[in-house]
Structures are given as structure tokens and as C-alpha cells.
Design a protein that fits this description.
Length: 315
Amino acid sequence: MHGSSSLINTKFCEGISDISDSYSGFIIDQWGVLHDGVRSFDGVVDCLRQLKDRRKYVIILSNSGKRAENNALRMADLGISPDLYDKIITSGEITWQGLNSQSEGYFKDIGKRCILISRGGDRSIVSELEIDVVDDPAEATFLLISGSDAPNKTLEDYEPLLKKCARYNLKAICANPDSLGVMAGKNIMGPGTIAARYKDFGGIVEYIGKPHKLIFQHCINILQEQNIYPGQTVMIGDTMAHDILGGSLVNIDTCLIKRGLHNSVFKNCEEPAEVDKALDILVRQYNNVRPKYLSDNFEWGKDLPDRKHKKRVTK
């Protein structure tokens, strides 16, 4: 499987230009790769433009609990305009579509009344749906987790509500599986952590988003409509648990961005051997799933024909 063996070399890239010729489809994580929720990172807009100039098909894939349109507006505010990519797919959008139809899988007949745990009381994930948000688990048919109010709220703050939902055997949908998020350069508790705690209390949870296959299969279907197949596609992200593991599960090559969630792991590494050692530690923590590429940032890099790739040494 591509990128899933600890024996495969990880190429150290000096930018996305190092790998752009090898792929037609690019699936790119949003938070931690393109921006930190407050500003877009240096080089991101230029890099996206370079990919578009080369007619690459670009999907922005996010575990955001918000719908695709909300994410497009957020990115536009950060200077990443819609002409720089082809599609935005969010776990919030997939969840909205599932709740709207309630026709298949976990969504089938899940009901019309929910307890909603979101960021800042945001209800956009159920907007225009025939679903009522209720306060009492006794009146609800399911629990919907789309965001967290961290760092203002801790996991313990959510526990009384979670316990009550579990007592009423409410099925839960987690519309953002991220256990950690990045906000203004700091790691904060993600909705996935709340969902995991619900499971601790005996609750049943369906996760919509990375690394689960459903959302990646949705991307693959869109790319195949463009005659682009998994072997011609690369997943670029900043988390081993979601981006790299998820890509490998559907046989897509992966590129890990060092600056994001795992920044602290690589922070003091100056020599390639030190980076290699840090990467090995990460790989062992995540079921020996190894990214095919490693890049400092999501930036284009220099177009120098004589530059050589640095490779990790096979042990």
C-alpha cells in the first residue's frame, strides 16, 4: 500500500514543486496546512496558484464541522479565493447531506431532534434542515458533535451532558473527528476528544471525516469524474492520525507538512538525520504508517532543475 510501510523511503521535499509533476489530483488539508484559523501561511496562495496554472485538480478536504460554503467564506477572508481550488469537501457538509436525506447507513432514520455540541453555539450544520436542536437529552433522537468551545471549556465541562445522553442511548454523529485543533498557533481540544469521551460512557459514535474511508471515497469519486485515479493523487496534510493514515487507507500517496500539528516534534531538528529520527518516532506511534513525502510548509519552493531530493536513509 502506498505510504503505509515503514520500509518505504520518505523523500524530504523543499516545496510542493518537488512532487507536482507526479500527480494530477491534490487533496489538501485546510487547518494547519493552509492557515491557522487567523491567517493564511506565507507561500500558500502562490503554491495553490502554481498548481492551478499546471491544471491540477485541487480538493480542499477538511474535518471542519461547518458546511463547505462556510469554509469557502472563511478561506476567502484569509486571502484564499475560490479560484485557487476546485472543490471544498468538509465533514460538516457530508454530515449535512446525510442528515438531509436520512436514507442510508448510520444516518438512516436517525430522527429529527438533536442535542448539538458546537463551537460558540453555531447551528449552521443543521440550518435549512427539518431538525430541531433541543436542550434535554430525554427529548432528543441523536447527539451531534460538530465543534468544541476549547480552550474556554474543558472536557470535564462536557461530561454531565455526555453522561445524560448515554443514559438515553442516543446515537452520536461526530462531524469533526479531530482530537486536537490548531488555533492561532496553539493546540486545542477538538470535537473528536468529546466524541471519544462519549464512547467511554458507553455511547455509540459514527465519525464523519478523516481518517475514515467514507470522506476519502467521496474525494476519489469526484476525482474519477475527472479521470484522475488514486495512483495519480496525493494527500497533503499536517496530521499523522487523520491525513496520513486516511490517505494510506485508500491507497493514496501522502505528504506530511512539518509546521502543523506535529511542529513540536520537528522543532529542534536541524540536520536531515535528526528530522529522520523524529519522523521515525512519529511513524511508530501511528501503526508504522509512513508518509511518502515530508515538507516544511505548503509552499512551492524553488524551480531548480539540478536540485536533488534528499531521501531518508533506509535502515
